[in-house]
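Possible regression after last week's pipeline update?

I re-ran a chain I had predicted before the update to compare outputs. Posting the input and the new output here so someone can diff against the archived version. Not blocking, just want to make sure nothing changed silently.
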Amino acid sequence: MQVDIHASWKPYLEKEFDKPYFFDLVNFVKKEYHEHTCYPPGKKIFNAFNHCHFNDLKVVIIGQDPYHGPNQANGLCFSVADGIPHPPSLINIFKEIEQDLHINYPKSGNLERWADQGVLLLNATLTVRAHQAGSHQNKGWETFTDSVIKTINDHKSNVVFLLWGGYAKRKSKLIDASKHHILQSGHPSPLSANRGYWFGNKHFSKTNSLLEQAGLKSVAW
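New output (post-update):
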C-alpha cells in the first residue's frame, strides 16, 4: 500500500502498510475524511515522519491525539500551524523551555523546526474528527505507532524518549532503557502542570546533555 511517508522510513515500516489492520485503518480514515471534517489535513497525517527522517532521529516526544479545532493540527504532537494561538499544553512547554534554557518565548507554535533537527513528535493516534477528542482511537493507529516505537527501539541507539503524562509513560514498556534514555514527567496540560508535575523537569537541557554525551548535536529548542 502506498503511504505518503518519507523514504527513510519505508524499509522499516513498509511491512506494516501491508498488514490487514492497516488496510482497515486506511479505509476507516478515508471514510471519516469523506464524511466529516477531520484533522490534520490529509497531506499532513504523516508530517512528523516527513520532517524527522529516520536517519536523523535522536529524540521522541509522544502525544496522544491531534488537536481537534480548526487549523490547529499539523501532524506533529503538541504543534500548531504558524499564526495559530498556542494551546495550553504548548504554552506550558514553551514556559518550561524559557525557565530551563533561558530562551525567549517563541512567536510560532509550529514545531516543524524541532522535527527538522531529529525530534519525532509522535501522536499515538494520527487523525481525529473535528471537535471530538479521541474519536479515532482504537481504530488501528495505536498498533501502527507502537510499531514505530519498537522499530526505533530496535534499530537506533541513544535515542532520548520524553514521556509526559500517564498515557505516554505506558509506552516505556516498548523501550529498552539499557540502550536508550527515558525521561518522564507529568503532562504539560494545565491540570497536571498547575499541580507541580510539569514545571522544573528540565527535560530540554537534560535531553541536550544526553545527546552531547552520545556525540550528537544538541537540539535548538
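Follow-up from reviewer: compared with the archived run. The chain has nine helices and six strands. Marking as no regression found.
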